[in-house]
Design a protein that fits this description.
mainly alpha
Length: 310
Amino acid sequence: WTEGNVAALAHECVYCQLDEAAIAYFDFAIKENQRTQPNQGIGSGTLSYYYYELALAHSRLGHTAEAVDAASAAIVSWGADDQNRTDALNRLNQVFAQAQDLDAYVATVDAKATATGEDSPIIRKAVGVTYLGRENFAEAARNLEIALELGSFDADLYDQLLTCYDRLERTEQAIDLLLARLDFERHNFALYAQLANRLASDPAAVERAYTSIVEASPNEAENHQALAQVREGQGAWPEAVEHWEQVAELRSLEPNGLYGLIHAQIQAGQLTDARESLETLSETEWNGRFEDEVRSKVDELRRELEMAMQ
């Protein structure tokens, strides 16, 4: 009557859906593993596997609280294996997806948090995602907000909460959420564009959203390039030239900044400047990996300049 034999029997009971027996066997196997293994079994993966299957057995019997506890323990006891971690998180999500008493369970979580101050960002996120799937957007948003307050940065959590705000038509909260996310992802230029789109009715706010791309990191070439491309899309070519000049200066060992600068100068009608920039591009001794590319680009930009001068 050893841990390994009992765990094997527990697994077969889960497979045959003899869930009550499986729970009893896994309880024994878990206690033995915690008693005999270093660090009480945490980190080996075996203990996480036991909790993983225990959660399934409890879930099928409708024991939501016990299933959540087991799934949470599987997460806590996972090892360094990313797949093990993913599987444990998926089990927690499955438990909530199958829960018929979700509202009652969440009420107990709320009561515990109020009484003791104890809460879990992992559980709150899983609850929020479940409510989102059930289209209870208000409860989804409430639980995801708590998860956001309790946990570390999680891009997926921001995406889920933004979906809730959109479905609830909470426009101001959606904008505030994007601004908060930008504090963590200052180089995620798609977020600036998304923010500008949401502020489309306020031109001044749109402009602030775009200029904040550079304000976030004024000495980063990629930020100036992102804003230069925005200006190109707006047809504001002189402004695009200014930012391409910064890119060319900050990334002087690479030709990409000059490519963009010359094209913008041509479009802005700054043909003399474009000719000088083209000479700089063609006469600079670039790293060998750029040679063929630069030669081709010089020919392309020279043709563009000639057409503009006709």
